[in-house]
Write a structure and sequence with these properties.
Layout: H1 3-18, E1 25-27, E2 32-34, H2 38-52, H3 56-62, H4 80-97, H5 100-105, H6 130-149, H7 153-178, H8 184-188, H9 190-212, E3 229-230, E4 239-240, H10 242-250, H11 258-268, H12 270-273, E5 281-284, H13 292-298, E6 304-308, H14 316-326, E7 342-349, E8 352-359, E9 373-378, H15 397-401, E10 409-414, H16 423-426, E11 430-431, E12 445-450
Parallel strand pairs: 5-6, 5-9, 6-8, 9-10
Antiparallel strand pairs: 1-2, 3-4, 7-8, 10-12, 11-12
Length: 453
């Protein structure tokens, strides 16, 4: 097999695993339990093992696959961790020529959150100590800090020193999982699953970096990674895991780009998240049953959520039940049998009373209410049959802008479909240049606007 063919085989599996097509469950006495995210972590580590057993510097020089030197018995002279160090040395050398590939391969690390929470406290054993865990998460925080400020030649060495610390730790975790030191019940624990997702992300990013050093590779798993979503404190459940997001996508309740969209929006809307107790209303015209993503983005600064759609209420009951599960089944969140017209749900979450309104009515009816608008969310609309055919981001912008209370701010997240953006709105929004687009949507725009004086 040629070098090119070998890399292509690994690369295809890497992309498939990045979309979590290798999904495993196991039956227990009570129910069928998911083995995620351990499954993609193990699979990605097998790919990593297939990469580091080769001497890539010599392979490039000779244009043929060459493993690391072996002794007379055919065993590698380098121990496994030494082979991994050789791969890191190779990647560092190649990355110095083009630092941007580091930024791309490890881009998901920029959106990691809560890296000092209780979930970062590992379960110590005869291989891993609590101090090992502290060093690992310290290195992860350092990687994130470097990526946020931008990769340049003068920080590459420090970046790879921290990467080596992380790689050594995850290698020990791999041994625990591969050799059965971790029981299934431990893998299923909420904190352990969250840590395994991070271990998977590290190895996936390392593999992505390797593939980006191959000139013919134009896509890697890091480009389309499903990132975990962090929920506001105050709930027993504080994270929506990548595997749970995947399940929501398969059920049609989240879009493929939504984990990235949520992280991006949270970053741009941080001033609103930190402005005090949530209040004000979210408005989503022609929402259908697309309620989970806007609700999660608006949760830190909204207390009311208005979803208008004069079409069928199909899918709403399923969406509400899944949202209730995501929020940890808060008291008062009772999913009604979906009526033909409208309904509302009132419950408490994170110490704040929340209300969800579904209105089977023309979107324009919202403009007649006295709601204090704090978040305008809009996507996937269209002209003519099947769409509202209303210029919410265009000519009607000045109408709903008046619903923002004087002296207060409003978040906006929209794709501008179908009529584009009013010039006074477009100038205040940031465009996402690379975010995955849905078939009927353009690129997303997000930002903070104010009442029109």
């Amino acid at each position: 097999m040629s070098v090119h063919q070998f890399v292509e085989v690994l690369h295809k599996s890497h992309l498939d695993n990045g979309q979590m097509v290798y999904y495993a469950k196991t039956p227990t006495r009570r129910r069928v339990e998911s083995l995620m995210p351990a499954t993609p972590f193990i699979f990605e580590y097998f790919l990593y093992n297939s990469i580091y057993q080769y001497d890539w510097k010599r392979t490039d020089q000779n244009s043929t696959l060459l493993v690391h030197p072996r002794n007379q018995n055919g065993h590698p002279r380098l121990r496994e961790w030494e082979q991994q160090d050789k791969l890191l040395e190779y990647l560092q050398e190649r990355s110095t020529e083009n630092p941007r590939i580091i930024q791309r391969a490890f881009a998901p690390f920029k959106f990691l959150d809560d890296l000092e929470g209780q979930w970062t406290e590992i379960d110590s054993d005869n291989i891993l100590s609590e101090d090992d865990g502290r060093k690992f998460f310290g290195a992860v925080r350092e990687l994130k800090a470097i990526l946020l400020t931008g990769i340049s030649e003068d920080v590459i060495e420090v970046f790879f020193e921290n990467l080596k610390t992380c790689r050594e730790f995850v290698g020990k975790v791999r041994n625990n999982i591969f050799h059965g030191a971790k029981s299934l019940s431990q893998i299923w624990s909420e904190h352990q699953r969250r840590r395994i997702e991070l271990y998977h992300l590290l190895i996936q990013s390392l593999n992505s970096l390797f593939f980006l050093t191959r000139e013919h590779i134009d896509s890697v798993a890091s480009d389309r990674v499903i990132s975990p979503v962090y929920l506001p404190s105050g709930s027993e459940k504080d994270t929506l895991l990548s595997t749970e997001i995947l399940e929501l996508q398969l059920e049609g309740l989240m879009k493929q780009e939504d984990s990235t969209l949520i992280a991006w929006a949270n970053e741009l809307l941080a001033p609103l998240r930190n402005a005090g107790e949530p209040s004000g209303a979210l408005f989503y015209p022609s929402a259908g049953c697309d309620i989970i993503t806007p609700f999660l983005i608006g949760l830190p600064f909204c207390s009311e959520f208005y979803f208008y759609d004069k079409g069928s209420a199909s899918g709403w009951e399923k969406a509400l039940k899944r949202l209730r599960e995501i929020l940890g089944n808060p008291s008062g969140f009772i999913v009604p049998k979906i009526p033909t017209r409208s309904f509302e749900i009132e419950f408490e979450y994170a110490g704040v009373k929340r209300r969800i309104f579904h209105r089977k009515a023309d979107n324009e009816e919202f403009l007649k209410t006295s709601s204090r608008l704090s978040f305008f969310f809009h996507r996937g609309d269209s002209m003519g049959e099947g769409g509202a055919d209303q210029p919410w981001d265009g000519a009607w912008f000045e109408r709903w802008q008046k619903m923002i209370p004087e002296g207060e701010s409003c978040a906006v997240l929209s794709d501008g479909i179908p009529y584009g953006f009013h010039k006074n709105l477009a100038s205040r929004l940031t465009k996402h240049e690379t975010l995955c687009r849905t078939p009927h949507s353009g690129p997303y725009h997000c930002g903070i606007i104010h009442h029109n004086h």
